[in-house]
Amino acid sequence: xxxxxxxxxxxxxxxxxxxxxxxxxxxxxxxxxxxxxxxxxxxxxxxxxxxxxxxxxxxxxxxxxxxxxxxxxxxxxxxxxxxxxxxxxxxxxxxxxxxxxxxxxxxxxxxxxxxxxxxxxxxxxxxxxxxxxxxxxxxxxxxxxxxxxxxxxxxxxxxxxxxxxxxxxxxxxxxxxxxxxxxxxxxxxxxxxxxxxxxxxxxxxxxxxxxxxxxxxxxxxxxxxxxxxxxxxxxxxxxxxxxxxxxxxxxxxxxxxxxxxxxxxxxxxxxxxxxxxxxxxxxxxxxxxxxxxxxxxxxxxxxxxxxxxxxxxxxxxxxxxxxxxxxxxxxxxxxxxxxxxxxxxxxxxxxxxxxxxxxxxxxxxxxxxxxxxxxxxxxxxxxxxxxxxxxxxxxxxxxxxxxxxxxxxxxxxxxxxxxxxxxxxxxxxxxxxxxxx
Amino acid sequence: xxxxxxxxxxxxxxxxxxxxxxxxxxxxxxxxxxxxxxxxxxxxxxxxxxxxxxxxxxxxxxxxxxxxxxxxxxxxxxxxxxxxxxxxxxxxxxxxxxxxxxxxxxxxxxxxxxxxxxxxxxxxxxxxxxxxxxxxxxxxxxxxxxxxxxxxxxxxxxxxxxxxxxxxxxxxxxxxxxxxxxxxxxxxxxxxxxxxxxxxxxxxxxxxxxxxxxxxxxxxxxxxxxxxxxxxxxxxxxxxxxxxxxxxxx
Lengths: 437, 250
Fold this sequence. Notes:
The complex is a heterodimer.
Chain A: H1 3-17, H2 22-38, H3 54-57, H4 73-76, E1 87-92, E2 95-96, E3 109-112, H5 113-118, H6 123-129, H7 138-146, E4 151-155, E5 165-171, E6 178-180, E7 183-188, E8 193-202, E9 208-218, E10 223-230, E11 236-246, E12 251-258, E13 263-272, E14 278-287, E15 292-301, E16 307-316, E17 321-330, E18 338-347, E19 353-362, E20 368-376, H8 380-387, H9 393-409, H10 415-429
Parallel strand pairs in A: 1-5, 4-7, 5-8, 6-9, 7-9, 8-10, 9-11, 10-12, 11-13, 12-14, 13-15, 14-16, 15-17, 16-18, 17-19, 18-20
Antiparallel strand pairs in A: 1-2, 3-4
Chain B: E1 2-11, E2 14-24, E3 29-33, H1 40-48, E4 54-62, E5 65-66, H2 72-78, E6 80-83, E7 90-94, H3 95-109, H4 117-130, E8 141-142, H5 148-162, E9 166-170, H6 178-191, E10 197-201, E11 215-220, E12 223-228, H7 230-239, H8 242-249
Parallel strand pairs in B: 3-10, 3-11, 6-9, 9-10
Antiparallel strand pairs in B: 1-2, 1-4, 4-5, 7-8, 11-12
């Protein structure tokens, strides 16, 4: 039985297991129909031209991990940003781990999707927001059909959340192959500000496929800073579908740090529904081996006087492949839009590949839109310059790569997060020098 | 200290150096002059270990050791320093961080611990004062947006930080106004001692008024065709290089 059939038949069982709320039930049923009709995307679709799911779909995934798996904090501490106080929502094989988490209902909700989907007090919010940002593509629909657990965050208005929130999804690999479909919903009301860090991590080498959906709503003048750390094992694949709906004068930024995993696909979508909105999309990708990272972004400018800034840096070694597909749509009404997009890449191996494609659809006539992509090698003259000062080849390369990524790193607002990323980069590059750029 | 014997070097099958012989002893200052395209910068790059250049014949000895098989960083660790004619811009790396990394990597190669932060700061302060460099300058990205003069001053600042045994100054005077020239020359002179040596590569005699050479060599067509004392530099300034070319071609 292939994965699609397996998922379709599991859905019937799944739908009987969960508490039935009419609204959510209908949404799920509609979603499974979409998935049934469309199936998994193939390379024949324009948006998937350079990324094939064929290989990873062949595994015999367990779609409902049965066991409760306990992990000790000390074994996974290193995956947390642990040097600062944070809220934590932790899942193990898709199931909530209360002893590793630190949630709150004090003046805001930092808790679980399973509660939000089933408890009556959240019903209105769920009806207003659940599946209202996600598009009806097959993978998001698949996630919607199975959505039962993940992070639920609601920040009411005028609240500055002082501690960052970490969302961590661990897979233990106790099953021979695991498929996970976490679903996160984040609603930030007027004038509020929150910082969120998300990470998916498998703890052994058994194959894992995560198809995640995160919906984020930033209401009037809200500020959301979202950081994604993707540094998983070489048998873990991630399809990350993130949808952000912004109301007027809100600022949303997403930083995606992609350093590992077998196949990573980021579908990052911004919808601007108001004036004077700012959307920021930044990323650093550093991969090697046969890894594959695909950034597929969309910024939809619907109203006037808004901005978007995209800056993606990629460094590709060995046999790795990268894709950047950045789409900007500026509607006719969206005059005075400022939309910028940059994608710069360095290939450090003859066998590495990058496919980069900007896509601009502009229907307004008074806009500033720019895009640029570059593909290059490490600057040889800079290498010689550094080496002539006593910096060895490997360290010189690393320093150049840091410098190359610095624009993105410097906009990370949590210092400990920046340090952590710097450290991961140093590990990735196999150097041990205290760069503090 | 430096002994170059019958050095031939080529880049992309084009032979540029065709048998250089040069000996530089500790405490000496040598000037290498010559018309454009004579191979001056190539000689500097070959001594510093630039990989594009292939040594096809001859060898380079530094303090009694063959260095032509060593990587650029290994030569730097042994005390070879090249002040670049065109210092490379490295956006995103500050002058301070670059120097910290360079010094600590050199120490690591010698089996020493990192320099304590306090000492590093003191050293940076001392040497930046010597080159009359503003502190703000040190937190800027290396050479990015620097004026010609700032770039050259920064090169000598790096030399002061690294305290090399052999400093090769490749056209350090180009792009400098007279004040900057004085500051740079003053810096070089203060760093000079009986234990180190300086090789100055220049087109013009101007810099040699400040950094006075013990020996002057003329490079032409990849060979040293004439050597003398500082008077030779004056003669070249007056008469140009044509008479040398005629002598060689005769």
